Amino acid sequence: MCPVTDPTPHAAPTPAARPDPLRLIPPPSRHPLTPVLLGLMFLSLIPALILAFQRVGYEQAQKTAALVMDYPALVAQAKRYGQDPQALLDRYKALGVNGVALYEDVIGSLEQRGAIYIRAGSDLTAENPGLGLKPGSVYMRSLEPGVAEALPAQYTIPTRTVTVKGQQWIEWPTDPRFLPAGPDQSLLARLKSQNLTLVYRPYADDAVKNVGANWPDVPFIAFTGDEVIGARTPELLAQVSERMGKRIPAIIESNPQRGLDDLVAAHGGARMFALNPSWQNRLAPLDVASKYNLAARERGMRLMYLRPYPTINETEDMLRRTSELLRASGVRVTQPQITYFEPSTLLRALSIVGPLAALLLLGLSFPLRRLGLAAAGLSLLVAFGMNKFSPFAGAALVAAVTFPALGMVLRRSRVSDWFVATGLSLMGVLFVSALGATHDSTLGLDPFRGVGLTLVLPLALVAASFLPRQDLRKTAHDLYSTPIRLGDIAVMGLGLAVFALVFLRRGNTTSGASVSDTEADIRRGLQDSIIRPRFKEMAAHPIGLIGLSGVLPGYFSALLVLGGVVGQASILNTFSHFHTPLLISAARAFIGLGVGLVAGLVLIQVIKLALRLWNTYGRPPAQGAEVRA
């Protein structure tokens, strides 16, 4: 039989279409060790859960704060309005103030109270020539018996006693008005009798012989300036530490003080929040109240250092609103009893296994396994290197960069995979807390190292897992040869700009980008009523869901999946602020997840409808198509 041939001439063969590396996401590999590594992660989760429960119990017992008014500022306001300082303090006490901050007196304060009399040497010499007085010196005598005579023994400055017209004067070679002179004992006794929480603020001066000898018996000491007394001299710092006794040093927010770490190590510390007076006066009283509430509720501040506004009415509005917000937040205004979180070293050691197993699983799940293991090894080295090879801090950073990426590396083909990724991120939260929450980190003294890395590295790991299972040189050639359209450049540029904004807006402080007035108002309203979720999470979670749905064509889905990784990374980033109570961070994360999930599911349907309208609008229905109502 003759073979059957097709009489129709064949078209010329066309070359096989090359896959576009920008448009394809290869499926992950499933390694035989995956069940074993997952089992190790879940076993290691048990000690991490125990530590989380212990931390929550500790933090719930710490929900107290003192509203401490700057007493000299209060006195200045009272005098400006012709009021008695005690009467004004009573008004503020009725609005919630339960403490005052009292500065150490200087010799000039004794002069102002009429305890001593000070004359310039030039004046005294002009009035009494021929007595050997020195015009460049300063002379002091007592108005209250014995006050001036007792001062020279407190300082290293050489003095001498001279007699002028039968009066004894103390000759000082320099003006002594600014020398620290101890507390105003009568004022201190009066304030103590009112059961106020007292914060004493001593001054530093090298001329003082016996530092701390006259410090009053108060619960808290807040040092002034950028360093504690004795910070530059180990022997003097040891003396200051001894004189602290049972007093607790204040850890002033955003004002690191040299030498404070040594005192906190020996005596513990109380976190104190204060606003710069010039900044406070630019804010409305309700804004200031919101910041104090946020500090007490979400940042572990125990001492709220208050300064009055220029007017009494503004000050009362601020105090009234602050007290209302603290009550609503469950923070009791009372003298704080300071205790410290001391996690079990054994439980922390057992918790290290989880992040290490997760990192190994991440590397083994890359389509290019060697690349995955290299990326995992480099991540491990960077994490431990940034933390000076501290095992617990290094493992905490490993958890923070691994778990946000792990879910999107293991599974990324459908919307339901978002729940897997989120579950793994929340597992990572427990490891970050177990390994990173310590005595110092919960006080804000030992911040989490690598916060920026927690946003960048998960993104890089997931992006690297997109590389196809082929020679990297071929992938690089394909990428180079892929035609790029103007729209591609615009989309990628927009993505980079959004990520740059997210990175600059990380953390609690303003960095490279600030918030708008409208966003600030929205934030204040949210944080006063609920635990404010992070805006980046509420935006990134819907983006990730849309990417996993595959509803958008081409490489858009891949880019959106990477956007979803930012949301997962932000969850871990939220929990890396260990001075924030664990339940507060959890509430913030779950509110963001809930809002993001609902928004994402709605947006998927909206995009489907929009694409259907785009593709069919203005076109006649296909012949034979059934028309449905």
What helical percentage do the residues reach? 40-55%
Sketch the major β-sheet: 7 strands, parallel, barrel
What's the shape?
elongated
Strand order of the largest sheet: 1-2-9-10-11-12-13
Summarize the entry for a quick read:
By secondary structure, this protein is α/β, with parallel strands linked by helices.
Describe what you observe in this structure.
- The structure is a single chain.
- The chain starts with 33 loop residues before the first helix and ends in a 13-residue tail after the last helix.
- With 629 residues, the protein is of the alpha/beta class.
- It has a 7-stranded parallel β-barrel, surrounded by 4 helices.
- It is built from 25 helices and 14 strands.
- Helices cover 53% and strands 10% of the residues.
Keywords:
alpha/beta; 25 helices; 629 residues; four-stranded antiparallel beta sheet; 53% helix
Q: What is the topological layout?
A:
Layout: H1 34-60, E1 64-70, H2 71-80, H3 85-94, E2 99-103, E3 105-106, H4 107-112, E4 116-120, H5 121-127, E5 138-142, H6 147-150, E6 160-164, E7 167-172, E8 180-182, H7 185-192, E9 197-201, E10 220-221, H8 234-244, E11 248-252, H9 260-267, E12 270-274, H10 277-280, H11 285-298, E13 303-306, H12 312-328, E14 332-333, H13 345-351, H14 353-364, H15 369-386, H16 391-410, H17 417-436, H18 439-442, H19 451-464, H20 472-481, H21 486-504, H22 517-529, H23 535-549, H24 556-575, H25 582-616
Parallel strand pairs: 1-2, 1-13, 1-14, 2-9, 9-10, 10-11, 11-12, 12-13
Antiparallel strand pairs: 3-8, 4-5, 5-7, 6-7
